[in-house]
Design a protein that fits this description.
The protein is 43% helix and 14% strand.
Length: 364
C-alpha cells in the first residue's frame, strides 16, 4: 500500500525517494511486523502468535517488557537506519499490535531520523493512552475496522473497542499534527455486508478507506498452505463487494482502491491475471528479525541477527543471489489478493493510472 501523509512537502520527499529506489531497482517500502503479540483475538488473523504461550505475553499489556522473540530496541533502530541507507522511502509498522511495544515512540523517531515516512497499522485499543507519545511521529495512521459498533467488538474479542476508536478519532480533528488517517477493512464470511456499513463511518471520520478479501494462508516451498480458507468469501460475494465499492466511490465515499483493482475483482475474483512485482518494491521483516522470502516463508532470506553478527548490511540482502532468485520467480505467483500487493505491482510497473492516483492522494 503506497501511502502519503497529506503534507505536500513531505509527500514530495517520499515520492522522490520512491522514484530513486525504483530507478536503482531497490525496494521503497519496509514492511515490519514489529510484534506478533496482540490484545485482540481475530479468527481471520494469520499473524498473531497462537497460542499466546510466551511468558512475556502475559505481561505484554502494560508492564513495559519486550518478548524475547522480538527484536530489541537497538536492533530495530539498526534495521531502520539500514533501510534509510538503502534508499527505502516508507516504513509500514504492523503486527500483532504494534502499540504493545513500549519503545514504539523511540522506534518511530529512529525511522524519521533515517528519512523514512512511517505508517502504523493498529487495532486502535491503545491509541488513547499511547498517542501523546506517538503524536508527530506517525505520518499515516491505519486503523483496522471490520465492522461498526458491537459487531466490530465481537470480531476482535475486545468489548468497547469501536467506542474507543470513535472517541479517539474525533479528538484528532483539530490537531495540527493529525496524521493521514486510513481505515482498513478485511472482508470475510464473518462480516458480510460490512463495506456498506463502514464506508459512512470512514467518511465521517475524514479517513480514506481500503478493503481487502482476507488472506487465507501463506506460501511455502511446498506451495500455498491454507489455514483459514473456510472463512473466505465465495467468488460471487467478492464480485458483489467490488461492484458495491465502485458504486460507493461514485457516490463520493472515500474508497481508495483503484478502479483497475475493483474491476479485476469484479470480473475475476481469483485475481490471477497479474504478474506480481510486489517483492521488488517491498521488503518484509518479521517480529523475530527474519527477512521474508515471500515464496518460501518458512526459509527466510536472512535475518537481522545474522546480518549484525557478520557486519553485513541490508543492501547485501538485496544484492544476494537468493533475493534475486525470489524476484525472478515472483511473477509466477498470484496468491495474494489484496489491493496493496496488486497496486504496488502496478506502481513498480510505472502504470500511468498509479501515478495519477499518487498525485490525487497527495492532495487529499
Amino acid at each position: 500500500m503506497v501511502v502519503m501523509n497529506g503534507r505536500p512537502r513531505a509527500d514530495l520527499r517520499v515520492a522522490g525517494r520512491m522514484a530513486a529506489a525504483r530507478a536503482r531497482g531497490r525496494p521503497w517500502i519496509l514492511s515490519h511486523l514489529l510484534t506478533d503479540r496482540c490484545n485482540a483475538v481475530c479468527r481471520t488473523c494469520l499473524w498473531r502468535r497462537w497460542p499466546a504461550s510466551d511468558e512475556a505475553d502475559g505481561a505484554a499489556f502494560g508492564d513495559g517488557r519486550l518478548s524475547p522473540s522480538e527484536l530489541s530496541t537497538d536492533e530495530v533502530s539498526w534495521l531502520y537506519r539500514q533501510a534509510g541507507a538503502l534508499g527505502v522511502a516508507q516504513l509500514v509498522v504492523w503486527g500483532g499490535e504494534p502499540l504493545l511495544r513500549p519503545d514504539l515512540p523511540e522506534l518511530l523517531l529512529a525511522a524519521r531520523r533515517a528519512g523514512l515516512s512511517a505508517a502504523v497499522i493498529t487495532n486502535g485499543w491503545l491509541l488513547p493512552e499511547r498517542w501523546p507519545a506517538l503524536r508527530g511521529r506517525v505520518d499515516t495512521l491505519i486503523v483496522s475496522l471490520d465492522d461498526i459498533g458491537s459487531a466490530h467488538d465481537r470480531l476482535r474479542a475486545l468489548p468497547g473497542l469501536y467506542r474507543r476508536i470513535d472517541a479517539f478519532v474525533r479528538t484528532l480533528r483539530s490537531d495540527p499534527l493529525r496524521p493521514r488517517l486510513l481505515v482498513n477493512t478485511v472482508l470475510s464470511r464473518l462480516n458480510r455486508g460490512a463495506l456498506r456499513r463502514v464506508a459512512p463511518v470512514a467518511r465521517e471520520w475524514g479517513a480514506g478507506l481500503y478493503f481487502c478479501p482476507m488472506e487465507t494462508g501463506e506460501m511455502t516451498s511446498a506451495g500455498l498452505v491454507e489455514s483459514k480458507a473456510g472463512l473466505a468469501l465465495p467468488p460471487d460475494e467478492l464480485r458483489e463487494a467490488a461492484g458495491l465499492a465502485l458504486q460507493l466511490q461514485g457516490a463520493g465515499y472515500p474508497l481508495l482502491a483503484t478502479k483497475a483493482y475493483l474491476r479485476m475483482l469484479a470480473e475475476k475474483p481469483s485475481l490471477s491475471d497479474y504478474r506480481c512485482r510486489a517483492p521488488h518494491a517491498t521488503l518484509t521483516v518479521q517480529a523475530g528479525g527474519a527477512i521474508r522470502d515471500c515464496l518460501r516463508r518458512e526459509t527466510p532470506l536472512d535475518s537481522v541477527h545474522r546480518l549484525r553478527e557478520r557486519g553485513a548490511r541490508l543492501a547485501d540482502v538485496v544484492a544476494s543471489p537468493r533475493y534475486q532468485a525470489m524476484l525472478a520467480s515472483a511473477h509466477r505467483c498470484t496468491v495474494c489478493n489484496n489491493p496493496d500487493v496488486l497496486e504496488t505491482t502496478w506502481a513498480w510497473q510505472l502504470q500511468p493510472f498509479m501515478l495519477r492516483r499518487a498525485l490525487r492522494l497527495a492532495r487529499a
